[in-house]
Amino acid sequence: MPTDRFVFLGIETTCDETGAAVLEGPRPPRTGVPQVRSSVVASQITLHDRFGGVVPEVASRAHVRQILPVIDEALRRASTRLSEIEAVAVATRPGLVGSLVVGLTAAKALSLALGMPLVSVDHLEGHLYACQLAHPEREVYPSIGLVVSGGHTSLYHCRGPVDAELLGGTIDDAAGEAFDKVASLLGLAYPGGPEIERVAREGNPRAYAFPRSCLHEERIAFSFSGLKTAVLYALRGQDARATGVAPTAQTVADVAASFQEAVIDVLVAKSRQALRRAGLRRLGIGGGVAANGRFRERLTAMALEEGIELFIPPLSLCTDNAALCAVALPKLARGDVAALDIDVSPGLVRPTRA
Question: Could you tell me the CA-to-CA distances from 27 to 5, 55, 79, 125, 338 in Å, in that order?
Answer without folding.
Answer: 5, 40, 19, 21, 18
